[in-house]
Recover the amino acids of this structure.
């Protein structure tokens, strides 16, 4: 059994006004391969303007539960020089479609310091989980209009991939449902 | 990644379990890294990986018809659908990975024949009408199950299900449109549609799993919010929607006992041949051997691509270091 390629976390931005969100992961040999795979897996429908990928092994992730219990996992080996870190945060477990969202970047000497600084700086909402990622580990899809167009626009024209393309076929299912309150009569 | 899987022998197990169950009762999602019982993790890995394998193997019966689609439009639709199934397999493998199982372990289990996948994909696709019927009935049954699983208490699985359901509604709709078109077509087209419905109806009912009385995992899964409905409840929803639609299309269903029950508002089906279901699940269906061989062949034939990409990545890294 051969081994699969390294795992990369994928961050997708749905519109320019929204943050990049951790939507899942892919396996790939290199960053560009990871981006291409991420596009095929996570943006087959028109709902993205930008994607980032980072090797899962470079991400320092900590939950509120672990911080409260003093059981932080071991961070990835730090870059010896101070560097830029991207900070991501999850603030709700209440609903299904809630993600670890990008909140900003900061300079720090290690992932642990980046986490400490993040906890001091991003205090507008309670964090249930933190992800700290060295900026140097993140590879981004190009922001030029041509690239955004060629990467993400074709899905818009493939209307046959939307159920609405087929309209109402046969009778609508509601025809077969008993009217409400029938039992009460 | 989750680091804490609780075992009943842990000193704090009862307290943590109570806290965990209270979170689920409040409707909170359990996320990677949160404490969870080992049994919750085990059941989820079993379900999610089986689900992922089903999406991957599910590409085979349909993929076989891409080159034989009767028009460019139908071909584009089928290609998009098969591409979606590949993507669904990927989302689901990723969701299982958040529980600490690796992609290698899951693929190994599939290729060695150890892992289970949906029984439905071990039936052959004999005519083009099977493609429409798979969309209408098989994806129709899958959506009923997946809509329920979109409410699942485990965040990554529920998110995968929300995305998958949105795409599956297209699969369902195109299949329904295709079968209804043939049902209104020439006598030959109508016969082809009827033949496909006759062959897929029972396997579609079976794919929603054994009766509740034979489904030992269900009570635990319902208690922990993994499932919110039982197999029989989901099956009933499926029949109530599809039976009247198929009859309205002028087709018949291969169940002489099928009847509408005024009192409950349910369509009541005749006995299901569970011997057939278990034979297929245990590897003796019409296509089990072919499906597994096709996966193994694809994996072996793709080896050079994996090797080439690995060598390319290694060389680029070396060059980067040298620079």
């Amino acid at each position: 059994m051969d081994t699969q390629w390294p795992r990369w976390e994928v961050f997708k931005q749905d519109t320019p006004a929204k943050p990049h969100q951790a939507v899942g992961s892919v396996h790939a040999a290199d960053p560009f391969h990871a981006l291409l795979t991420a596009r095929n897996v996570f943006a087959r429908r028109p709902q993205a303007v930008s994607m980032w990928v980072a090797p899962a092994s470079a991400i320092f992730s900590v939950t509120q539960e672990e911080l409260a219990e003093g059981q932080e996992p071991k961070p990835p080996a730090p870059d010896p020089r101070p560097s830029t870190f991207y900070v991501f945060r999850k603030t709700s477990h209440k609903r299904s479609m809630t993600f670890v969202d990008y909140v900003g970047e900061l300079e720090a000497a290690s992932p642990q310091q980046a986490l400490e600084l993040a906890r001091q700086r991003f205090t507008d909402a309670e964090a249930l989980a933190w992800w700290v990622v060295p900026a140097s580990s993140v590879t981004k899809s190009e922001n030029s209009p041509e690239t955004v167009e060629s990467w993400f626009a074709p899905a818009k024209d493939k209307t046959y991939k939307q159920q609405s393309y087929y309209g109402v076929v046969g009778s609508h299912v509601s025809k077969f449902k008993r009217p409400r309150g029938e039992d009460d009569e | 990644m989750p680091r804490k899987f609780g075992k009943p022998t842990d000193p704090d197990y009862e307290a943590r379990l109570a806290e965990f169950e209270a979170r689920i009762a409040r409707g909170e999602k359990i996320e990677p890294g949160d404490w969870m019982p080992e049994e919750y993790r085990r059941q989820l890995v079993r379900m999610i990986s089986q689900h992922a394998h089903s999406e991957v193997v599910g590409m085979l019966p349909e993929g076989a018809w891409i080159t034989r689609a009767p028009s460019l439009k139908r071909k584009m639709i089928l290609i998009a659908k098969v591409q979606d199934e590949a993507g669904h397999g990927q989302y689901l493998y990723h969701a299982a990975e958040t529980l600490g199982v690796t992609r290698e372990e899951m693929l190994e289990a599939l290729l060695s024949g150890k892992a289970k996948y949906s029984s439905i994909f071990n039936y052959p696709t004999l005519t083009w009408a099977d493609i429409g019927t798979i969309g209408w009935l098989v994806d129709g049954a899958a959506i009923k199950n997946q809509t329920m699983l979109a409410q699942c208490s485990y965040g990554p699985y529920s998110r995968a299900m929300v995305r998958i359901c949105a795409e599956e509604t297209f699969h369902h709709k195109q299949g329904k449109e295709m079968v209804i078109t043939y049902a209104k077509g020439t006598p030959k087209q109508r016969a082809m549609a009827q033949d496909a419905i006759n062959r897929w109806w029972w396997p579609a009912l079976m794919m929603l799993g054994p009766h509740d009385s034979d489904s030992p995992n269900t009570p635990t899964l319902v208690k922990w919010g993994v499932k919110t409905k039982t197999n029989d409840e989901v099956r009933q929803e499926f029949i109530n929607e599809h039976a009247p639609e198929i009859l309205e299309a002028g087709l018949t269903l291969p169940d002489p006992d099928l009847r509408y029950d005024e009192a409950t508002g349910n369509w009541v089906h005749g006995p299901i041949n569970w011997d057939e279901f278990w034979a297929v699940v245990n590897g003796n269906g019409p296509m089990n051997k072919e499906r597994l061989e096709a996966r193994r062949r694809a994996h072996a034939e793709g080896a050079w691509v994996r090797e080439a990409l690995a060598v390319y990545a290694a060389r680029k890294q070396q060059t980067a270091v040298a620079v």
Chain B touches chain A through 60 residues (CB under 8 Å). Chain B has two domains: 5-286, 287-323. Chain B has a mean pLDDT of 94.
